[in-house]
Amino acid sequence: MKGSKAIIRIKDKPDSADEESHMAELTIQISDELAQRLEPLQNRLPELLWQLLDVANLPTNSQPTIKTETTDIPAVYQEVLDFLIKRPTPEEIITFKVSPQVQTRLSELLEKNRSATLSPMELAELDVYEQLEHMMILLKARALKRD
Questions:
Q1: Which member of 4, 13, 15, 24 lies 3.0 to 4.6 Å from 35 by CB, making a disulfide possible if both were Cys?
Q2: Bridge-partner residues for 9, per DSSP?
């Protein structure tokens, strides 16, 4: 698909009579077909972009959006995070154990590691377990000192 260059002038909502100080120029690569479809709307493109931002509720600043979904985080990580976010007491830290499901998963990973059949993703997951175990050992040691 051959791309066309389209220059779109986006006007910020001006606060004064000096509109030029509120202008930005945006150059984008689009297909010829899209360029033809946008041609009749060229004078309305800034307004349409503002409407798109309003409808989609997209951030208009340069701050990065933070993904808060935890679907890609291993279950053990979620359990430890959920536990720590509750601000446990030293006693709760000392007695903390992961769920039987997480313990079962760890056993599976360790068995695959012994038989050298871990996939790269499983190896990364096992590394997470190791890091979290080390962190929990340190937390429990500190909690014991406070107890």
A1: 4
A2: 25
98 in Cβ contact with 80 (< 8 Å) = yes
Same domain assignment for residues 48 and 83: no
Q: What is the mean pLDDT of each run of 10 residues along the chain (147 residues)?
A: 53 52 69 74 71 65 54 80 93 94 94 94 90 93 87
Q: In this structure, how many other beta carbons lie within 10 angstroms of the beta carbon of residue 141? A: 11
pLDDT at 74: 80
CA dist., res. 117 & res. 108, Å (int): 11
Q: Are residues 89 and 142 in the same domain?
A: yes
Residue 7, strand partner residues: 27
Tell me which amino acid residue 16 is: S
Q: How many domains does the chain have?
A: 2
3-class SS of residue 2: coil
